[in-house]
Structure formats: C-alpha cells, structure tokens
Amino acid sequence: MNSNIDFQVIDWTTIPKTEHPGETGAATWQTLQFPGLRVRIVEYAPGYLADHWCQKGHIVHCLEGEFVSELQTGETHVLTAGMTYIVSDDLSSHRSRTEKGVKLLIIDGDFLRSSIT
C-alpha cells in the first residue's frame, strides 16, 4: 500500500462540515482522510464536553479560543491559541471541554500507535 501524499493545497472552505454531538454542545469536523492519516479542523461550540474518554493518539493544535484537555486521572491542561498537545494511542484517557468555544487542527494516524503492548 502506498501511503505517500502528493503535494496539495487544501482550501478548508471547500471541505464539508459534519456535526458530532458531545455530552453537552456539539463539535463540527472538516475531515481529510489519507491512508493511515486523518487531518481535521474541529470546532467545539461553547459549552462543549466530549461524550467519551478517548484513547486515540492525536496532535492537537489550538487555532482560536481556549479548551481544557482533561485526563481521566483528574489532571487538566488549559490550551489557548498557539498551543499544542501530543499523545500516542493508549497512553492516556482524555477528553476535551470548552466554555467559550474553540477551533482546533487535529492530526492523528498510524504514526501515533503506541509501542506498548
């Protein structure tokens, strides 16, 4: 399987939006899927709380606004515009919440698979 990605420019205004309800509020995703790689612009509406604890690895970059990345251990991290977090698959249970709304660039894929078995 060829997982190379040719050079391309992405005009996010042409990528359809899909809505994903949270425990409270909703998330809007614009998604590009490549073999072994997913790239998304995700917007959480004010009052959003994820409806699950996620085990997937991500690179999450905050483009606008502010959100809290909450770990199931109780630890929390506030991220604002210009900040990023990175985690591999299966290394933490995490979920996002925001009071005022946020816009994120999220990248995930096979390269974030945990080496823990």
Short description:
This protein has no helices and 8 strands. The chain is mainly beta. InterPro entries: DHCW_cupin, RmlC-like_jellyroll, RmlC_Cupin_sf.
Judged by helices, strands and strand pairing, the structural class is mainly beta
CATH topology of the domain at 40-107: Jelly Rolls
Q: How much strand?
A: over 45%
What do we call the CATH homologous superfamily of the domain at 40-107?
Answer: Jelly Rolls
* Biggest sheet statistics: 8 strands, antiparallel
Round the Cα radius of gyration to an integer and report it: 14 Å
Number of extended strands? 8
Question: Which oligomeric form is depicted?
Answer: single chain
Order of helices and strands: EEEEEEEE
Q: What's the CATH class of the domain at 40-107, please?
A: Mainly Beta
CA-CA gap between termini: 24 Å
Description:
This is DHCW motif cupin fold protein. InterPro entries: DHCW_cupin, RmlC-like_jellyroll, RmlC_Cupin_sf. It comes from Vecturithrix granuli. This protein has 117 residues and is mostly beta strands. It has a domain of 68 residues: Jelly Rolls (Sandwich). Helix content is 0%, strand content 48%. The protein has no helices and eight strands. Strands 1, 2, 3, 4, 5, 6, 7 and 8 form an eight-stranded antiparallel β-sheet that branches. Strand 4 and strand 5 form a beta hairpin. It is globular. The two termini are 24 Å apart. The model has no long low-confidence stretch (mean pLDDT 93).
